[in-house]
Amino acid sequence: MLSLVFPSLFKKPATVLYPFVKPEVVANFRGKLKFDQSKCIGCKICMRDCPSEAIEIFRISETEKIFKAVVRLDRCLYCGQCTDSCPKDALEMTKEFALAHFNRESLRVDI
Amino acid sequence: MLLSLLYIFIFPGILFLSVYGLALEYLDRKLYARFQNRVGPPWFQPFADFMKLMGKEGIIPTHADKTMFKVLPSFAVAAVSVVILYLPIWGTNSLYSFDGDLIVVLYLLTIPTITFFIAGWSSNSLYATIGAVRTITQLFAYEVPLFMSLLGPAILANSWSVSGIAAFYSNNPLMALANIPGFIVAIIAIQGKLERSPFDIPDAETEIVAGPFTEYSGRFLAFFRMAIDIEMIVVASLVAAVFLPFWSTSIGLGIVIYLVKTVFIVFILALIRALMARIRIEQMVNFCWKFLAPLAILQILIDIIIKVLL
Q1: Domains of chain A
Q2: CA–CA separation, B244 and B252 (whole Å)
Q3: Number of domains in chain B
Q4: Residue A56 forms beta bridges with which residues?
Q5: d(CA A63, CA B235)
Q6: Is residue B95 part of a domain?
Q7: How many CB atoms lie within 10 A of CB A77?
Q8: Residue B1 falls within a domain, yes or no?
Q9: Could you tell me if residue B3 is inside a domain?
Q10: Dihedral of CA A31/A36/A42/A45: which sign?
């Protein structure tokens, strides 16, 4: 074990000095949700499948089928179930993870 | 008179011990982190820890012994601070040396461990009691090998004062090669005295919270930690003075050599701490009595034989 420990003294440490250095995330990282309004058909499968009832779909036009999504970032588990379940691929998970806020109400965002 | 006050308060007194103790704690933590591929704390971290602890409220439990609780940290710091008066720092002379001060140094070094025991015992808390009993058991294990390993070089050097031993080995550096088994025993034994891995049984955080210091907080804990830091300087200086025979006539170069020697010993201690896992208390007692003590006796035999031959 000495042959492993002693050379570590001369190598660069494995620590990423966050927040001065931004870490690299993997390709299919599950971060904040992104909603494509043009693809959504309002089936609300994402609302039914969400394990923590984090996403809500509202109809914003009386005449046309246009919907908006509101997600509660504190309830969202970032599990990706809504993204998998959506039949029209209207939801996508981005690489954004720095989502902390000071009060809970500001975590209910439109996407 | 003024010079004595300067020695006691500035160098090598309380100010030097505090600053160098914090510096060695930083070095130890930084080396320990780098051995584990981490970054480690910045240079002012031990000082920041000390100031933080001094600023916090010191809570004394209801059923604890109030007087002992408050007084023991000062005992520990005082006992280890006095030892530096007898250790050679800028060459082979210490401040106040007399024949037999090796015994006084070893006696004074036992006092902090006993204060840790009394601190844990007088805290009247379950975890503290177990930690205190383990501290004393560990003292029983490493103390005899440590004393015997320092006895060997003293016999060969024909002197019972630390400065005398340092002067003898500085004049005959080749004799120091005969003390290598004793050096190994001394390094392992001081790892036990400082209660560091693999001998940090009394402070086994995952098992008994903080051992004897469980109930300590605020400035009492700050002084106990300062006592442990100063203890590190003092035992490293003692081992460096007895086993590592480099010296110099000029004071400046002598101080530089002293710093290099103590940093070298702290490097070895940090390496041992990074390599080993914690062992159980009965494994430690077994190891010290069945392996370290015979090795120390072997060292004494080697030194007696060499002294008789020469």
Answers
A1: 25-110 (3.30.70.3270)
A2: 18
A3: 1
A4: A70
A5: 85
A6: yes
A7: 11
A8: no
A9: no
A10: negative
**AA identity, residue B165:** I
Tokens of A9: 């003294």
A94, two tokens:
């981005």
Query: Which tens digits make up the pLDDT trace of B253-298?
Result: 888 999 999 999 999 999 999 999 888 888 999 999 999 999 999 9
- Supply φ then ψ for residue B28, to 5 degrees: -65, -45
**Close Cβ partners of B15 (under 8 Å, ≥ 6 residues apart):** B9
Task: Write out the residue range of the structural domain in which residue B215 sits.
Answer: 15-309
Nearest to A5 among B38, B39, B275 (CB): B275
Is residue B224 included in any domain, yes or no? Answer: yes
* Cβ pair B102, B168 in contact under 8 A: no
Residues of A in contact with B271 (CB under 8 A): 2, 5-6
Report strand pairing: A91-93 vs A33-35: antiparallel
SS3 at position A47? helix
- The complex's ipTM? 0.72
Is pTM beyond 0.90 here?
no
Residue A49: both structure tokens together: 């499948």
Of B43, B41, B51, B14, the closest CA to residue B222 belongs to B51
Which residues from B are below 8 Å from A14, CB to CB? 37-38
Q: How many CB atoms lie within 10 A of CB B293?
A: 19
Whether the CB of A9 is below 8 Å from some CB of chain B: the reply is yes
